[in-house]
Amino acid sequence: MSKTKLGTAEAIMIILTVIVARSILSLPTDLLNAFKSSTILNLIYVSIIAILIVLLICKLFKKFPGLDIIDICEITGGKVFKNIIGSVFIIYFLVSAGLMTRNFCESIKILYYPMTNVFFIIALFIIAMCIVNRLNFSATAKTTLIIIPIALISILFLFFTNINKFVPERIFPILGNGFFNTFILGTTNIASFGGIAYLYFLPPMLKEPKNFKKIAIISITLTAIFLIFTVAILLFIFTFFTHVDEISPLYTAARYIEFGNFFQRLESLFLLIWILIFACYISIACRFSMNIFQKLTNIETTTPLANIFGLLVLGIALLPENLAIVQDFGAKIYPYLMISLVLISSIAILIFANIIKRKKENYLRKET
Amino acid sequence: MAGFLGIGLGLFVYIALLCSLDSFGVPFTSPLANTSKGNGYLLPPIWKRENRASYMTTKREKDQEKISMKWKYHDKKR
After folding, report:
1. Which terminus of chain B is more exposed, N or C, with fewer CB under 10 A?
2. Which residues does residue B62 pair with via DSSP β-bridges, in sequence order?
C-alpha cells in the first residue's frame, strides 16, 4: 500500500484542520467584532461564494488530472515561474503556521504557564512536529483522521451543552451593521476558508484523483458548518464580545459548561483536544511546505528537511514582539494575503494555463 | 516537566507513531484511521459490503457480487 497517497477521508480532514485550528484562535471573535449579529448570515453568504469558487477550481483542474499548481506553473511559465510561485506558497504556509503557533502558545501561556517563557512552549510544539514529520506522510494524515472528528464532535458537544444559556434573540438585528457591511464588505470574510490553499496541492497526493471534486465540496461544506456552529456558540452566549479576546474565545465558552458535579473544569479536556489539533495543523502546514520544496529542488526524500522547516517555523513564531502584533496580522494582513495569493493569483494562473492548453490543442488539431 | 501540554503533545506523537506502524502490510490503526469503501467508522449492512477491506491489499478486491440477494429481484420480476 502506498505510504504517500491520501484517501478521500484523509484529504477532507487535512483541509478541515486549517479551519479548526483557526477557529480555536481569534477568528470567531474577529468575525463577531466585524459583523456583530449578522455574522451567521454573512457566513452563509460567504460559504456559498466559497463553494462556487471551489467548483471553479475543480473545473480548472479538470484538464490537468493528477497535477498540482506547481506542475501547472511549470507548464504555463517555465521553471522560473514555478520556483517563484512555489516559494511564495512555502512562505505563506510557514508564516501562517508560525504566527498561529505563536498566537496559540501565548494563549496557553496566559492559561497555564504564566511564569514560563513562550519560547519553551513553542519549542515543545516544534519538537513534536519535527518527530512526526520525520515519519511518512500517511502517518500524519491518519493522525489527522483520528483527531479531527474528535474536534468536530467536541464543538457539537460545546454547542448542545451550552444550549440552555443561549439567547436566540441576539441574532437580531439580522443585518447587523447593515446590508453594505454584511454583503459587500463582508466578502473579504472568504479568507476564513484558508483550507482552499491546500486544495491546490492535493491532486497528485490522492489515491483516487477522480474524487477531487467530491473532496473539495465536502470539505468546504463541513468547514462552513463548523464555522457557523462556532460563531453561533459565541453569538448566542455572549452579549458584547470585545472584552474576551485576549485568550481563545471558545475556551471562555467551554468554561460555561455545567455538566453535573462529577465533571469539574471540563474546559481542560477541550484544551487537550485543541493542543492535538494545533500540533496536527503545524505538522500539515510544514509537510506541505516540504513537499513543495521537494518538487522545486528534485530532492529524493523530505525526511532531513523536517528539522530545518521546524526551525524556520520556530524562528517565524518568535519574530513578533508581542501577542498584539500577531493578532493584528491575523485580523488585518492575513485575509488580504490569503485572498490575493490563494484566490486571485492561483485562479488566474489556472485560467491562463487552461487558455494555453486549449490553444496548443487547437494548434495540434489544425496541423493534423 | 511540561505538564498538561507535555501530555497533549506526547499523545500526539504517540498516535502518529502508531499510525506509521504496520504489520504484514496492514496498518496498526486500520479500521480507525484508514477509512475506505465501507470500512470506516460506520459499516453498511452485510449484503452491501461488496468490497474487501482495502487495507488488507487482497488479490481479489470484491467480496461478493454487486447484487448479492438475487432472489429479491427475481421475486419482483414474477
Report:
1. C
2. B51
Grid coordinates standing for A331? 485580523
Asked if the Cβ–Cβ distance from A112 to B5 is below 8 Å, we say yes
pLDDT in tens, A343-367: 899 999 999 999 998 898 888 888 8
Contact flag B8-A268 (C-beta cutoff 8 Å): no
Q: Which amino acid is at A201?
A: F
The sign of the CA dihedral A141, A211, A294, A313 is negative
Residue pair B34/A142 in contact by the 8 Å Cβ criterion: yes
Interface of B with A (CB under 8 A): 2-9, 11-13, 15-17, 19-20, 25, 27, 29, 32-36, 40-41, 55, 57
For testing the chain B interface, which of A142, A207, A278, A280 should be mutated: the one with the most B CBs within 10 Å? Answer: A142
- For A253-289, how does the pLDDT look when each residue is reduced to its tens digit (9 = 90+)? 888 777 777 777 788 888 899 999 999 999 999 999 9
ipTM of the predicted structure? 0.90
Whether residue A223 contacts residue A215, with contact meaning beta carbons closer than 8 Å, is answered with no
Instruction: Tell me which architecture the domain covering A8-367 has in CATH.
Output: Up-down Bundle (1.20)
